[in-house]
Amino acid sequence: MANEPTHEEPSFLEAPWLCRQVETHLNHDSFRHSSRKRFHHWAWNKIHLEMHKPEQRLFSTWAVYKFLARYHWLHHRYQNKNFNGVFPLADYVLGTSARANTADLQLMQQIGIAPPWSGR
Ligand SMILES: [Zn+2]
Question: How do the domains of the chain map onto residue ranges?
């Protein structure tokens, strides 16, 4: 039969070019994942260190840092809440987010991570 594959034809899965493509894709994905992970660890270590041992780093006055600092401060106060210091939305979705009460806000103001809010 003319249409039947011969034993000399490589199967699709054995094609060397496919193997190279898959390997390249996996290595590329692995590299990207690994790079993201390293960046996350580096960034979180800088941010977390500033939260616990303030050295007035460049980002320490940024509003997003102050938000994350308050968020993380609440995690240490209520240890079963606010687990995700980088993506707080996850805690909202999973029901593990904590809200600051008046006493919390006063303590946060004392350490400089909350503005002097009034009437809250
Ligand atoms: Zn901490």
Answer: 14-54, 62-120
The Cα-based distances of 33 to 29, 75, 84 in angstroms read 6, 27, 19
The angle, 0 to 180 degrees and rounded to 10, between the axes of the packed helices 63-77 and 102-110 is 120
Token couple for 61? 């006055």
For 23, counting Cβ atoms within 10 Å of its Cβ (0-12 exposed, 13-18 middle, 19+ buried), the class is exposed
pLDDT in tens, 58-93: 999 999 999 999 999 999 999 999 998 878 899 999
Helices (H), 53-101: 63-77, 89-94
Whose structure tokens read 């493509």?
21
70: CA distance to ligand 1 center in Å? 11
The pTM for the full model equals 0.65
Q: How far is the CA of 14 from the centre of ligand 1 (A)?
A: 50
